[in-house]
Amino acid sequence: MVTKASGASRAATAGEAMAVVDARGLVAGWSEGARRLTGYAAEEVTGRAAADLVDGDAAAVWRALLTHGDAVAGLRYRDGRRQAVALRMCPLRGGAGEGRRFVVQAAPDPTERGLGELAFKQASMSMSVFDTGQRYLRMNDWACQVMGQPEAEFRHQYFLDTVEDAEHSRGFLRHLEIVAETGQPVRYESWTRSPSGRRMHAWTSEMWPVRDDTGELIGTALAAFDSSEQYWARQRLALLNEAAGSIGTRLDVVQTARELAGLVVPRLADFASVDLLESVLQGEEPEMGPLDGGVELRRAAHHSVTPGVPEAAIELGAADVYPPFSPPARALLSGAPVLTRTGDDSLDSWFADHGTRSAKLQEATDHDLSLMAVPLVARGTTLGVAVLVRSLTPEHPDAFDQDDVSLAEELSSRAAVCVDNARRYTRERTTALALQRSLLPKAVAGQAAVEFASRYLPALSQAGVGGDWFDVIPLSGTRVALVVGDVVGHGIHASVTMGRLRTAVWALADVDLPPDELLTHLDDLVEHLAAGDDTGEAEIGATCLYAVYDPVDRSCSIASAGHVPPVVVRPDGGVEVVEVVAGPMLGVGGLPFEATELAVPEGSVLALYTDGLVEARDRDVDTGTAALCDALAGSVGSLEKACDTVLKALLPDTPADDVALLVARTRALDAEQVAVWDLSDDPALVSNARKLATDQLTRWGLEESVFVTELVVSELVTNAIRYGGAPIQLRLIRDRTLICEVSDASSTSPHLRRARSFDEGGRGLLLVAQLTDRWGSRPSGAGKTIWAEQALPPSL
Description:
32 strands, 6-stranded antiparallel β-sheet, alpha+beta, 23 helices, flat, about 800 residues
């Protein structure tokens, strides 16, 4: 006969959480399972009152156990947690003379244990559990919906017996086997249709091992979600990336049209055609002529998923007249894409009026069609139109949407530029000049740190236009970057290189790198461009000057990559050449750049320029720089007049080199517009930081911004304390916008992440991003600064 005492002994050996309590309510025995559950060792609780472990009315719990044999009670764990557990009690049979004792067994509260089951069943993604032989054990409701059958139909079925025998199914099975073999989690991505549907989907599956209490692997669990949206986003990005290298590989109009049609089929459309104006194919300025009877276009390229391109109603090189109501003509006339499908009057009428086209389409497909006509527009000039057609089938029922339109516009825009470059190939200088002027800044919004004026003069020599450029780039914290650069050489190659470098400078400036680090990255980029250049001009040389002006502390940090130094005109009229450390030219590689710090009083004028302004055949750089200083000497009034004065004094009537000149007068923020506080890394001071910010906004009369600013300050200061560390500084700036900045000692930049349902954190930066207009981070000394910018109330 097995006594309750022996049963309790076996249970305790098996690892259950059990305790022996005597008649006085004192703990007389403590199992290993009880230690694991509560954290208390046996010697810590033996002899103590069991009531000390109960969080709540211990007497009521004891009465319930005596009366009913079970109860739910809160236990105090050794680490301070409180956990609801289910208690069961039974008397322990002892020997003669021993007092009465009881065995109390604890297990997680069954009501809370049921939460996990409900969460699994009701999860918004497909979840399944397999045994180590890849046979179904459990499926939640979403998995059953995806598979199209109830759970009972799959239980204990081998996975491969429940799906089609295809490569993605075998890949899925292999990943399940890998988890069972290695005990390590894996991820599997596939592109397939679910058994319950006909449409293709992208699926991302996370698989992980399931182990019992002893650590033995007993199965595999997975969670799968439909990632089609992310899949298509990646496909669009990949297509755009491929377009950069596959469209416009040669300066040939027809070749570029073929590259565009070949790129979009089959990844975006089932059929594509590119029709151009006759004048474009002849290399002349585009002319559409009279449009009353329609517009005549000539077929430059077409491509199809079906061999022989049966959808094409006209041959390559043949011309056709498109009536004004047809989608291609409407796209040409409006300069905007036209999206339509069969069933729309304009499309059906066009097909019906063009017998050949209607017959071809009927031969090619019996399904409905989705059609998109996208104009090829380059530099404001319409060159032709690309027509993309998609056949709508039960497997692929999705018509073109706005995302497809945006992608097609981007691809067509790139193709149009390449077509236009090819059309103007014989006019290289005109093309290069138009490209360069389109890249130079016309206006800069969102900055009040400087007032500026600029001039760009192309060379009038037969060498053609060079690669000079300048920029004024707004930065965070009311700062501004002043940039001027010069690509060695002339012609289209120099202009295109200039455009790529200017774009790179904008991208690097957006990261808020210090001037010396920015030039280092730009130097690496130039090396990569040279290494990937297959035009025969492998070497790329360029100079660049990058200056960052801060109107708060009236300082300017300047770094140079082989560029001529800037000139500063002080408010009192004094002129001096800034002694910057002249680093190597971009493209040399391997050599460092150094930044020069300069104090710039409010009202100072900085002049940045290219060497074409100060260097000539009969004048060296030093002589030209001295002449520039003379031209700027004295009080500078109108910046526009100052530019004209400098150009008139230094340049001949026919300059031999391009000239870029950027003149900027510095402004400064009043001390009342900036509030700065140094904070400690005590989390308790977050509320104080909020109060400091609230009081300052009240002084500024910005009560409407208090709510958002409090949230921003709370999140940024909390992150700085938690992840950054001292020294921590909070700064508010009131300029054209309200800027909140928090600096800390960590150099790690923050990033947004998607918090899960039960995460306690991870939502703060997402909230900041949604409540403010812009946010970001930048390096600052030994750490970083996180900033957020919000618009001022309309009344201000």
